[in-house]
Write a structure and sequence with these properties.
Shape: elongated
Distance between the termini: 7 Å
Largest sheet: none
Structural class: mainly alpha
Radius of gyration: 11 Å
Number of helices: 1
Order of helices and strands: H
Number of domains: 1
Number of strands: 0
Strand content: under 5%
Length: 36
C-alpha cells in the first residue's frame, strides 16, 4: 500500500513521518504486516 506514498515526491518529508507511524501500526496489528 506504499505505492501511493512513492509517487508523492513532494511530500518526501511527510512520507517518512507517515511510514514511521505505519510501522507502529503494523507492529501493533495482530494480523502481522497487513499494510506492509
Amino acid at each position: 500500500m506504499l505505492q501511493f506514498y512513492l509517487p508523492h515526491h513532494c511530500q518526501e518529508g511527510k512520507i517518512v513521518k507517515h511510514w514511521d507511524s505505519i510501522q507502529e501500526v503494523i507492529a501493533d496489528t495482530p494480523s502481522g504486516r497487513t499494510i506492509y
